[in-house]
Design goal:
The chain is mainly α. The protein folds into 2 domains: about 45 residues, no CATH class; about 80 residues, no CATH class. The chain has 10 helices and no strands. The protein is elongated.
Length: about 160
């Protein structure tokens, strides 16, 4: 089940990770930053493809690729789509959605217990209220991970 959830999150991320119809890269960020017409998007996409800089942009988080930042982006999408179940699992410190989130964050097996413990311990700070958004919970989770010596290495 965890692999299915991770696979579904990857599929969603692949279709939503680019900031514009032309993707991200030199063509989108520098050459045609204000592209509105279809032909401008085609030219931006062609520039992105022929200049071979999208990999650099995604790795460095530049050239309009800030939103395509790998595992943490997947974790954010996953949290958005599974907020209720994730909150329930985090409150117990165990569950499939919590396991899937740790996998999406790239948490190694040796640190999964620390990850689940950190989310359970900081449940009130991460899932502030029933009206808290997934974006708020995601930012709070990142803050919890930043403050934890064992988990901060997964933030990049």
């Amino acid at each position: 089940m965890k692999k299915f959830i991770a696979g579904a999150a990857l599929a969603v991320a692949a279709s939503t990770s680019f900031a514009s119809p032309a993707g991200c890269g030199l063509g989108t960020a520098v050459v045609f930053p204000d592209a509105n017409e279809w032909y401008e998007h085609v030219m931006a996409a062609t520039t992105n493809g022929t200049s071979g800089n999208q990999t650099f942009g995604m790795t460095s988080g530049t050239l309009g690729c800030e939103a395509a930042n790998g595992p943490l982006k997947l974790a954010q999408i996953f949290m958005d789509q599974n907020m209720e179940q994730l909150a329930a699992d985090a409150s117990r410190g165990q569950g499939e959605s919590l396991d899937a989130l740790s996998t999406l964050n790239g948490v190694e097996a040796s640190d999964k217990a620390e990850f689940t413990k950190a989310l359970k311990t900081n449940f009130d700070a991460i899932f502030v209220s029933t009206s808290a958004t997934s974006a708020d919970a995601y930012q709070a989770m990142v803050s919890v991970m930043e403050q934890n010596a064992e988990l901060s290495k997964y933030l990049g």
